[in-house]
Amino acid sequence: MTASAEARDTALLAAQAAADKLATDVSIVDVSDRLAITDAFVLASAPNERQVQSIVDEVEERLREHGIKPVRREGVAESRWVLLDFVDVVVHVQHAEERAYYALERLWKDCPTIPFVDNANPAPTGDTAAEGGRSPDGETSGR
């Protein structure tokens, strides 16, 4: 069994909201075969507590706009690892240190992932510096 279409859509919406607030290492794990209580985990990291909270706020706001509210929130006071439970999808926003220490991807490595591509920053298709655009370090080419 794989995650429902609704859970996939919710997970992708949450992942994009996190990415829009500069979350790093955003990924979605389909845990539907292993857990009966949810279909997918959205995992996202941030370098500090303030950024974790900003990501959490954006995910909640974006999903609320689609009529989806969390049934539970944990870890908000410390903002080191915040869990947002949307029933079919559980969003984990972790401080980078917690993400490395707990390594949820390793714990769920036998589960498939749901592909996520950040719409705001799609993967480059070519050498933008050679095409007169900006290089990865922000410098413009001489054109």
Task: Show the helix and strand layout.
Elements: H1 5-20, E1 24-30, E2 40-46, H2 49-64, E3 72-74, E4 81-85, E5 89-95, H3 96-102, H4 104-107
Parallel strand pairs: 2-5
Antiparallel strand pairs: 1-2, 3-4, 4-5
GO cellular component, one term: cytoplasm
Subunit structure: Interacts with ribosomal protein uL14 (rplN).
Region (Disordered): 119-143
Explain what the structure shows.
- One of its GO terms (molecular function) is ribosomal large subunit binding.
- Residues 119-143 are annotated as: Disordered.
- The protein is α+β, with helices and mostly antiparallel strands and 143 residues long.
- The chain has a single domain (5-107), classed as Beta Polymerase, domain 2, CATH 3.30.460.10.
- Helix content is 30%, strand content 20%.
- The chain has a five-stranded mixed β-sheet with strand order 1-2-5-4-3.
- The longest helix has 16 residues, at 5-20.
- The N and C termini lie far apart (53 Å).
- 31% of the residues are buried.
Give the mean pLDDT.
87
Please give the largest β-sheet: 5 strands, mixed
Q: How much helix is in the residues?
A: 25-40%
Q: Which stretches of 5+ consecutive residues score pLDDT under 50?
A: 125-143
* CATH-defined architecture: 2-Layer Sandwich
Distance from N terminus to C terminus (CA atoms, Å) equals: 53 Å
CATH classification, class level: Alpha Beta
Count the E strands.
Answer: 5
Q: In one word, what is the shape? A: globular
Number of domains: 1
Tell me the fraction of residues in β-strands, as a range.
15-25%
Rg, Cα atoms, Å = 17 Å
CATH topology: Beta Polymerase, domain 2
- Order of helices and strands, N to C? HEEHEEEHH
Read across the widest sheet, the strand sequence of neighbours is 1-2-5-4-3
Structural class: alpha+beta
CATH homologous superfamily - what is it?
Answer: Beta Polymerase, domain 2
Number of helices: 4
